[in-house]
Amino acid sequence: MRLVVFHAFPALITLEIAGNALLAGWALLADLRRRPQLGAVFWTVLLVVVALVAVQLAAGLILAVGGSRPQVPLHFLYGILVVVGALLQFGMRPSGFLRRATLRHLAAGGREPRALALLCLTQAALLARAYTTGAFGR
After folding, report:
1. Distance CA 137, CA 55 (A)
2. What are the C-alpha distances in Å from 122 to residues 20, 85, 91?
3. 23-45 pLDDT, tens per residue?
4. For residue 64, what are the domain limits?
5. What is the pLDDT of residues 7-24, one digit of tens each?
6. Under-70 pLDDT residues of the chain
7. Chain centroid offset of residue 84 CA
């Protein structure tokens, strides 16, 4: 399988988008049930989704360094935003580097699930948009 085909592999992208949408719904339900924090299973699924994004990022970086370019340069912007979102997701995990700075206050107020629902929903939208700019040039 060529690297460009792997980078734009629909099943991989679908897993990433669906995973983030599932996590957003999960966090929203936890927020509606007034749970102050999310459980270990949520964070495990989140790390799997972030790992999928990292694999796709690595393929995209190899393609870019090798001289391959998308139809629309805007694809790079969405790729950067997806990476920022993945870093935020990774950093907000229970032992993450952003946990002490941001989620400590959110968890104390019982708003951790709401913040993660918004982040996961935004990440799903960014992934979908990155795919459409790369695959269809729009």
Report:
1. 22
2. 9, 8, 16
3. 999 999 999 998 888 899 999 99
4. 3-135
5. 777 888 999 999 999 999
6. 1, 3, 6, 102-110, 137-138
7. 8
Q: Which two tokens stand for residue 24?
A: 């957003």
CB within 8 A of 109, min separation 6: which ones?
none
Q: How far apart are CA 27 and CA 33, in angstroms?
A: 10
Distances in whole angstroms, Cα of residue 83 to Cα of each of 106, 110, 111: 23, 27, 24
Query: What own/partner pairs with CB < 8 Å and gap ≥ 24 does 107-110 have?
Result: 107/36, 107/37, 110/34, 110/35, 110/36
- Residue listed under structure tokens 């949408």: 21
Tokens found for residue 32: 């509606």
Residue for token pair 């270990």: 40
CA dihedral (68, 50, 88, 18) in degrees, to 10, reads 100
Token pair 């790729």: residue: 79
- Among 11, 9, 3, smallest CA distance to 62 is for 3
Q: How many structural domains is the chain composed of?
A: 1
